[in-house]
Amino acid sequence: MSTSTKGPVIIITGTPGTGKTTHAQLLVEESPVPLRHINVGQWAKERNLYESYDEEWQSHTVDEDRLLDELEPLVAEGGLVLDWHTCELFPERWADLVVVLRCDHTRLWERLEKRDYALKKIQENNEAEIMEVVLDEARSSYAPEIVVELKSEGTEDLENNVARIVQWIDVWKKDRGSSN
C-alpha cells in the first residue's frame, strides 16, 4: 500500500475493450483529490519502453523492468491512476486499489471489432475475458480487500463505477486525515 497522502494509487485493469481509459479519464475529472492518469501502454510507446513489436499479435512487447523503473518515482508521489490491460507486474506495495473491469464477451467482441482488431486478437482477448484471466491475475497479485471487480457494459455502469471509486477515495482521504 502506498504511503502517500497526496492521493491514492489506483490501478484500473481489464481485458482490452472493457473501458479502462474511459473510466480513468472520468475518475480524474470527478476525483475529490488531484489524480494523474497514465495509460501505461501509450506511455510505454511514447518513451520507447518496449523490447519489440509482435506483428502476429499487432502489439508491442514492453520492457517491464524499464517501465517499472520509470513509473516508480511517479507512484511514490501518489495521486495516480494506472490504466493497463494487465496488473500483475506492478509491485503489490504500489496499489491502494485495483479495479478490474469486466464486460460480457459478446459486447466485448463488438467493441474490439470497432477498433479494427485482427480476428485472432479479438478471439484471444474474448477468451481471456471469458476465462477471467485479468481478474485472476489481480486476485493472485494483491490483497483481496483492495481488488474490486466492476461490470463495464455501458454508460450507467461507467457512471456508477466512477461514483463508487470516488466514494472509496473519500474514505481513503478520511482514513489518512488528508485535507486535500
From TrEMBL:
For the biological process aspect of GO, one term held by this record is: rRNA processing
Give the enzyme's EC designation.
2.7.4.3
Region entry NMPbind, spans: 39-62
Report residue spans for region: LID.
114-124
- Cellular component aspect of the GO annotation: cytoplasm; nucleus
Q: Where in the cell is it found?
A: Cytoplasm; Nucleus
The signal peptide here is none
Q: Which GO terms describe its molecular function?
A: AMP kinase activity; ATP binding; ATP hydrolysis activity
Positions of ATP binding: 17, 19-22, 115
Catalysed reactions listed for this entry? ATP + H2O = ADP + phosphate + H(+); AMP + ATP = 2 ADP
Question: Which keywords does the record carry?
Answer: ATP-binding, Cytoplasm, Kinase, Nucleotide-binding, Nucleus, Ribosome biogenesis, rRNA processing, Transferase
Pfam families, sorted = AAA_18
Q: Which family does it belong to?
A: Belongs to the adenylate kinase family. AK6 subfamily.
Which PANTHER family does the record match to this protein?
ADENYLATE KINASE ISOENZYME 6 (PTHR12595:SF0), POS9-ACTIVATING FACTOR FAP7-RELATED (PTHR12595)
What does the subunit section of this Swiss-Prot or TrEMBL entry state? Answer: Interacts with small ribosomal subunit protein uS11. Not a structural component of 43S pre-ribosomes, but transiently interacts with them by binding to uS11.
Cited function = Broad-specificity nucleoside monophosphate (NMP) kinase that catalyzes the reversible transfer of the terminal phosphate group between nucleoside triphosphates and monophosphates. Has also ATPase activity. Involved in the late cytoplasmic maturation steps of the 40S ribosomal particles, specifically 18S rRNA maturation. While NMP activity is not required for ribosome maturation, ATPase activity is. Associates transiently with small ribosomal subunit protein uS11. ATP hydrolysis breaks the interaction with uS11.
Q: Specify the protein name.
A: Adenylate kinase isoenzyme 6 homolog
Gene name linked to the record: FAP7
